[in-house]
Design goal:
This protein is α/β, with parallel strands linked by helices. The protein has 3 helices and 8 strands.
């Protein structure tokens, strides 16, 4: 992996389409994307043979949580943790790792444990489903605006 200012880490992501979208978003912003805690029984963790939905065939970028903490001093968990701050207005350090959790279960305990910060997307009401993060290009060069949608 290259050394960039940020990395998007999918934690236990199951759906190959979600992995492809994460990888495309990372490319759009010029940051890395990798996956941690992939179970061999999940569709994303299979060997990828004959699976057209799996991103990049058998070249799925993987990272360990130890490697993430060694490379990035700020590890941001995007989850509805009790101490999480709202995503709106949050400023990340120049180099950071952003952890995005499993589609159904959120972040694993091991990912929550290494997080130095936690952010969440606010809900409009208690009846609305939790917001998912989305990323848009910022107005300045090299900036990224994160929001909920």
């Amino acid at each position: 992996m290259n050394s960039t200012s940020a990395i998007l880490i999918g934690d236990s992501i199951e759906n190959p389409a979600n992995a492809r979208v994460m990888m495309a978003a990372a490319r759009m912003f010029g940051v890395e994307c990798a996956f941690a805690n992939i179970a061999p029984t999940d569709p994303l963790g299979s060997n990828g043979e004959g699976d057209a939905t799996r991103p990049d065939g058998d070249r799925l970028p993987l990272i360990t949580l130890d490697a993430a903490t060694a490379r990035y001093s700020q590890v941001i968990a995007c989850d509805n943790l009790p101490d999480a701050r709202e995503l709106y207005g949050f400023r990340a350090a120049p180099q950071f790792a952003l952890l995005i959790g499993n589609e159904r279960r959120g972040l694993t305990y091991s990912s929550r444990r290494i997080a130095t910060e936690a952010v969440h997307c606010p809900r409009r009401s208690n009846f609305d489903p939790p917001c998912r993060p989305n990323f848009d290009p910022g107005t300045g060069a090299g900036t990224m605006v994160a929001g909920c949608g």
